[in-house]
Amino acid sequence: MERRTSVGGFIWHWRNSEVKLTQAQVCEILGWDTFHLSDLERDKVRPKKEELELLFGLLQLTHEAVGQGYFLAGIAPTEAELSYWVNHTETFLDAFDMPVMLRDFTGKLLNVNSAANRTFPFAKNVRAQRPQWLEVLFDKSLREIPGWDEQLQKHIAIFVADTPFDAREDWYRELLKRMYKNPQFPPFWVQANDDAEYDQPILDGYREVTMPTIIEEGVELTDFTRLSRPASDIRFRIDVFVPKAA
């Protein structure tokens, strides 16, 4: 199932419609074989980030378009880009009185606001550790919460549906390699791929979720509506957790 626009079509649009250069002109400037650009635009080969940096510069992509291009190519943000977005959004996140989290498209949690720190037991070290969401979900302390395994299964299905990538991406393979070291993970993952709601608009952001929350006696499960919106760079998303009325 194709679940996102191809990076090849994206490159073709910018070359042909925006800057109006021929394949031969682009390849002459970059010193490429004409067949290589043709293969990139037909998605016959997977682009390297170094190639895209050269190509996007030549095609004069906007900052937002560069992020979109890397997203479509499945290329994860660099550490410098992660740090930039953590710093760039910190004041914005803290303006909310509800829990808010910043993540990238690979599912890496980058930062949370003060309300999230007070609400979620896993939030305290997010900024320092930048954990992967699947690893957070599978934390042993959460598995001890009564009823969490059912919610864990739902969260993994949401991750699958909201992440339009697969094991062809380096970061995706590395994530699964780490997760499969836990022998309890594979059955959840197999079931999640059956349960994932692909009919919902990809990354639409509206999800009904149950989260572990801190209470005086310990931790309990609480229902939220998660509202997720992309930043100006589509590789980054901000998730707002709105408590559901009792």
TrEMBL record:
<dbReference type="InterPro" id="IPR041413">
    <property type="entry name" value="MLTR_LBD"/>
</dbReference>
<dbReference type="InterPro" id="IPR001387">
    <property type="entry name" value="Cro/C1-type_HTH"/>
</dbReference>
<feature type="domain" description="HTH cro/C1-type">
    <location>
        <begin position="11"/>
        <end position="66"/>
    </location>
</feature>
<dbReference type="InterPro" id="IPR010982">
    <property type="entry name" value="Lambda_DNA-bd_dom_sf"/>
</dbReference>
<dbReference type="Pfam" id="PF17765">
    <property type="entry name" value="MLTR_LBD"/>
</dbReference>
<protein>
    <recommendedName>
        <fullName>HTH cro/C1-type domain-containing protein</fullName>
    </recommendedName>
</protein>
<dbReference type="GO" id="GO:0003677">
    <property type="term" value="F:DNA binding"/>
</dbReference>
